[in-house]
Design a protein that fits this description.
By secondary structure, this protein is α/β, with parallel strands linked by helices. The protein has two domains: about 160 residues, Alpha-Beta Complex (Quinone Oxidoreductase, Chain A, domain 1); about 140 residues, NAD(P)-binding Rossmann-like Domain (Rossmann fold, 3-Layer(aba) Sandwich), CATH 3.40.50. It is about 25% helix and about 25% strand. Strands 3, 4, 5, 6, 7, 14 and 15 form a seven-stranded mixed sheet that branches. β9, α4 and β10 form a beta-alpha-beta unit. The longest helix is centred in the middle third of the chain and has 23 residues. The protein binds NADPH dihydro-nicotinamide-adenine-dinucleotide phosphate. The site of NADPH dihydro-nicotinamide-adenine-dinucleotide phosphate has 32 residues, from α1, α2 and α3.
């Protein structure tokens, strides 16, 4: 953070001016039983003992949150937990003296909502090094309409550009976005189109196509469903943002042009990678792995500033819905089905 330290405060966690109880969504799981997720009254002493207490205004529903809420293995390290891998809100107090009371902040990643209690409550606590100051031109609601998924989409595009991708006159640089109507997908489309790229969206849900077009997709193709993928196929893409993995990622790699790159960040369609070395050694295709969780905090301000400047906010609203924490259990199951007729793009959670 480019923040000047302020006077170190001597407040302790217990002297935060917090209400004696506040609401939060908690997930509990005991051996052999399905998880229970419900809204409960929580107390400040249940929050993790980190320096910064934040009044959470908005959180979001990401793929990982859906796994956490439904008790799927691989995300939550110990129960009970308040899920929510990201949030934006206002600093209530900071024992480290890094943030002044009232500062608007964003948190994504760092194991929050997985190892540590997360954003689905009225209050949360974090280490100062996990927080980023909200860009001035952005509201906390807009920040969470981007959230972890959108931040990751920006990281994918930055990585592709570092590898050589650049927009050409008249939208001639062709970029494929897979998992297009998901959170990573819609943000990638909006950002790429606004940066001057010709976007092809790969989506399996026809009812979302109008929104994907509005966001800037020039073409929409179906999901890749081939059982078997040829490692080398017709050269189509100057770059790819993939959040699906599996056969989809293998197919995208096979269609990448010579010396172009694929940014891979997700596994919504599978964890395997059924390809061979041929696209890498015969075409010089680069496979760029993207991890947003432990992306260095020192570089995050720059990423958020680019998002703030490049997202077409008026259009982006059409790919965002706002829900309350008590709706999350049902929505998590829908999101994981990959076939929801209700959820498109980003789901913001109003925690206020
Ligand atoms: P969403 O559920 O919002 O989007 C995933 C999209 O993938 C769906 O909307 C759907 O798009 C497509 N999809 C779903 N199931 C399948 C399937 N079986 N086969 C093919 N396509 C499918 O999730 P997010 O966008 O939030 O996250 C996407 C992935 O990226 C997740 O695996 C998530 O864990 C990962 N991720 C990784 C991060 C990192 O730091 N590496 C950070 C954020 C997310 P459509 O209906 O249009 O086909």
């Amino acid at each position: 953070n480019r923040l000047s330290p302020i006077r170190r405060l001597s407040t302790s966690a217990s002297s935060d001016t917090l209400p004696s109880t506040f609401k939060g969504l908690i997930v509990e799981k005991t051996r052999g039983n399905p998880p229970i997720s419900e809204i409960r009254d929580l107390t400040p002493s249940q929050l993790p003992d980190f320096d910064v207490t934040v009044k959470v205004e908005y959180s979001t529903l990401n793929y990982k949150d859906a796994l956490a809420i439904t008790g799927a293995p691989g995300v939550v390290r110990s129960y009970p937990i308040v899920p929510g891998i990201d949030y934006a809100g206002t600093v209530v107090s900071d024992r480290s003296g890094t943030f002044e009371k009232g500062t608007k902040v964003i948190l994504t990643g760092h194991g929050v909502g997985e190892k540590y209690w997360g954003g689905y409550a009225e209050f949360a606590r974090a280490k100062p090094s996990w927080l980023v100051k909200l860009p001035e031109s952005m509201t906390t609601k807009q920040a969470m309409s981007i959230g972890t998924a959108g931040f990751t989409a920006m990281l994918c595009i930055n990585a592709l550009e570092k590898q050589g991708l650049s927009p050409k006159h008249n939208f001639q640089t062709k970029v494929l976005v897979t998992g297009a109507s998901g959170g990573v997908g819609v943000t990638a489309i909006a950002l790429l189109a606004s940066l001057g790229y010709r976007v092809t969206a790969s989506s399996g849900r026809k009812w979302t196509h109008e929104t994907l077009t509005k966001l800037g997709s020039k073409h929409i193709i179906d999901r890749f469903s081939d059982e078997k993928v040829r490692p080398i196929d017709k050269e189509l893409w100057d770059g790819v943002v993939d959040s699906v993995g599996g056969v989809t990622l293998a197919k995208a790699i096979s269609q990448c042009k010579t010396n172009c790159a694929v940014a891979a960040c997700g596994l919504a369609g599978g964890t395997s990678l059924p390809t061979s070395v041929f696209p890498f050694i015969l075409r010089g295709v680069a496979l760029l792995g993207i991890d947003s969780v432990y992306y260095p905090n020192a570089k995050r301000d720059e990423v958020w500033s680019r998002i703030a400047a490049k997202v077409p906010w008026n259009l982006f609203e059409s790919a965002t819905t706002v829900r309350r924490p008590n709706e999350l259990s049902e929505m998590a199951n829908q999101l994981l089905s990959g076939k929801s007729e209700e959820i498109i793009g980003r789901t913001v959670v109003d925690c206020g």
